[in-house]
């Protein structure tokens, strides 16, 4: 197992005695976070940060793109770090004693299969607005949906993590969608 960043070469010999050399690079992403009470600090330098609400299925928190993050609500949070062309996710951190306490949702919706290669089905029990975000937290599109089952084709999207926000009359919830290659 390689744990140090750098370039490596490995020689392989096939059954006929021919050899090949494979050269590859290992890049590490610093996903360490320091927590001081309700303050969370992403420690990576020369990186782009996006804080995520783990209680809302890792939904990106709009505008939370700085190293320092101070949540306005109790819950669990993580940071997605983009560094040296790679993306990684920190562990989750609990913040308590701020805002109005934990959020609860009671909108029963389904997204499947997740992860997916081609597309996902989304079932909603009531009229909602659905917003689709890229991994950087930028809204790509939105739809107004009546109660029902809808298929969303992901073939025009590259393999990575995306997010949907679902808004009903009284509830806002989020879900990560993983598009596999």
Helix content: under 10%
Give me the number of helical elements: 0
From the N-terminal CA to the C-terminal CA, the straight-line distance is 24 Å
Q: Give average pLDDT, whole number.
A: 84
- Give a count of the beta strands, DSSP E runs of length 2 or more: 17
Write up this protein.
With 181 residues, this protein is mostly beta strands. It has no helices and 17 strands. Strands 5, 6, 8, 9 and 10 form a five-stranded antiparallel sheet that branches. Strands 14-13-16-17 form a four-stranded antiparallel sheet, with no helix packed on it. The radius of gyration is 20 Å and the shape is flat. 21% of the residues are buried. The model has no long low-confidence stretch (mean pLDDT 84).
Please give the structural blueprint.
Blueprint: E1 6-13, E2 19-26, E3 33-36, E4 39-42, E5 48-53, E6 59-60, E7 68-69, E8 75-83, E9 86-89, E10 93-95, E11 110-112, E12 119-124, E13 128-133, E14 139-145, E15 148-153, E16 160-167, E17 172-179
Antiparallel strand pairs: 1-2, 3-4, 4-7, 5-6, 5-8, 8-9, 8-10, 11-12, 12-15, 13-14, 13-16, 16-17
